[in-house]
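RECORD TYPE: protein structure
NAME: Caffeine-induced death protein 2
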Amino acid sequence: MAQASSTQAPGLTPQFCFNERLLRDFLSLSRSTIDDSITQNLNALFTPAREGFDPSSTAARQVDSGAGRTIDPAACQGFQDKVLFPSWQTRSDVLTYCAGVATSPDPEDPDLLLRETESARDRERVVDERLDPYSARFFPREARTESLANLVRNQRTVEEIIRSRTWGLVSERCGGSAGGWEEALNNWREKTQR
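PREDICTED:
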C-alpha cells in the first residue's frame, strides 16, 4: 500500500471560500485521505517482515495483524511530520483564510441589493395579524458572509472532533505522547518554522 500524502492547499481566494460546496469538498477530501483512513495509513507503516516469518501464524486467521503492536517510531514520526501535520495545517490555513473572508466587507455580494430591497419593504409593511397570523413572519436572506462564517465555525468543530479521534489512534499505535494533538501540532509548527 502506498503511503498517503498530505493534501495540497487550494488557491485561496474569496471566490473559493464563497463556493461553499468547493470548500466542503476540499475539507472532505483531505479528511478522507488522511484522517478517515488513519488505520490503513498506520497499518501501511507496520512492517511485519522485520520480526521474521512465524510458520504458526498461518494456522489461524489473523484479523488485524498490527493490533496491539507499536509501529517503528521513526516511521510514525515521518508520517506525522510529512503527512498528518501538513494536512492538518493546510486545513487550518484554509479555515483561517475563509474566516477572514467571512468577517470582511463583501462589496461583490450578488444578493446585497435584493436584501436591501427586502429590508426596506419589510419596514413599510403593515401587518394585521387578525387577518393573517403568519404575515408577521419575515425571513430575511442571510448574507453570504454570514453563511460562510457559520460554515467555518461548523467545520472547525468537525476538525476538533476528527483530530482528537485521529490523534488517539496515532498515539495508541505509535507508542504515543502524553500531550494532546494541539500540543503535538504546535511542536511540529515550531520545528518547521526554524
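COMMENT: The chain is about 60% helix and 0% strand.
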